[in-house]
Amino acid sequence: MSNKRTLILDKEQIRQKSIRIAYQILEDNFEEDSILLVGIADRGYVFAQRLQEILMRIAPGKTFDLLRINIAKTKRSLEATTDGTLEIAKDKVIILIDDVLNSGRTLAYGLGMFLDVPLKKMRTAVLIDRSHHQFPLFSDYYGLKLSTILKEHVEVELEEFDHKEDAAWLS
């Protein structure tokens, strides 16, 4: 793998795309009083927190709850925990959020957490969609859709988690 990194999103572009995604979520769910944002740890959860802040600012009369999912991403079967009860999702619209959608495995595992919970609707939001789907999962809301080759890697750095300025890199 090459050591060369190409900046694909800078801090301001990530901020703008986050705002756009928040407005899309709001427009798609304008009739809902409460939406559950489910962030996949670690960067997906940070991204979900940011979307929650934006949504609360642009739609102050609505409720945007937040749930964190920790998924064992390298396992071949679903092993996951949450920081709350899944019952909070019952009969609600949930938005499953991650930083990068690559194969779809992580989002599939996230979806698997809610198979036994009656939902109103589930949507997905990612900052970057790489379009290398091995699972039939797609991003409903995305900041950037990027066609890459399989050996390329997309890395998102978020200040709250990485202690570096926000950026997305292709290497």
From TrEMBL:
Keywords: Glycosyltransferase, Transferase
Gene3D superfamilies hit by this protein: 3.40.50.2020
GO molecular function: glycosyltransferase activity
Limits of the Phosphoribosyltransferase domain: 8-158
Pfam family, one: Pribosyltran
CDD domains linked: PRTases_typeI
Source organism, top-level taxon: Bacteria
Name of protein: Phosphoribosyltransferase
Source organism (scientific name): Sphingobacterium griseoflavum
